[in-house]
Amino acid sequence: MSQQAAAQPRIKIEEHEGGVIIARLAPDALGLFGRDDAPEFIELVRRADRDPAIRAVVFTGSHPSRFISHAEISWLQEDGSAIPPVSTRITSAVAKIAHWAARYRLTRWAAGKTPLMGGIQLDDLHTAYLRMATSSTIFVAALNGSALGIGAEISWACDLRLMAEGDHFIGHPEILMGIPPGSGGTQRMPRLIGLHRGLVAILEGRPFPAEEALAVGAIDEIVPADQLMSRAVERAAHLAARPTEAIAAVKRAVNVGGSLSMADGLHLERSEFLASLPQPKAQELMKGYVRDTVENGELPLYQPGGYAAALQRGTATGDKEEVTA
């Protein structure tokens, strides 16, 4: 019985129309994200990025009132106890070695019984988040409750964050346990809400209640609890309706370019723009836009209802019948 239970997937997947899937995370009774959850999460992100049939992923929690409580503390404590006290100069070198070792099956196997495995697991999570940030797949966090620590970090890596109405909060308590965030919190949250506000929140360890999170830009929308999933799927499908190559190009230009200098960011934007111009879908849409303009004597986006139809359809031109009321 225990072997059968162990074989059960930790993440529950539901498929919806339009290539949208819902992934229910953290089935632990307390809503914790643990060592066994990480590999499935990483594999799901990899699959969603590579499978053209998956256009969007909506993450939500399995706990009735929490998205993810936080990481399982025993996981962090046990891995931490295997690391000798050393300087950040040494741990920086270890992190680089872990990044290299994670790339090859043999080195992963050799590191499996060493303290380096914890570094590899962390590197795998960071790789998954970076994949989400540059993928043509849309990722949405449907926060059915509070999200702390790694729960917040998974949501920061998503393209959209919707939270259910209620007494919920999101943020980083790690400093209260003597550690900084380690799964992207120090980098992504300040980019969302501002460097100083993010710094103070992480230093204090105080989460943002839902209304405050919305006000500072940590989440995008607060939704009645009974409408959360339908709204999350709706918004995911809406963004996923855009041309796939363009979605990936925009995400790379914003998420990667936004971390570069202005000159380097503009260079990346130019590169993405020039690479997108000859793409078959872009050529089809631009030719259709010009043709529609000639036929109607007006630019499609300026025709009555034209822009609203384009937003709903996901393309600037197309059959009017494709857009439903």
UniProtKB/TrEMBL annotation:
GO molecular function, one term: catalytic activity
GO BP terms: fatty acid beta-oxidation
InterPro entries, per the entry: ClpP/crotonase-like_dom_sf, Enoyl-CoA_hydra/iso
Cited PANTHER family: ENOYL-COA HYDRATASE, MITOCHONDRIAL (PTHR11941:SF54), ENOYL-COA HYDRATASE-RELATED (PTHR11941)
Protein name: Enoyl-CoA hydratase
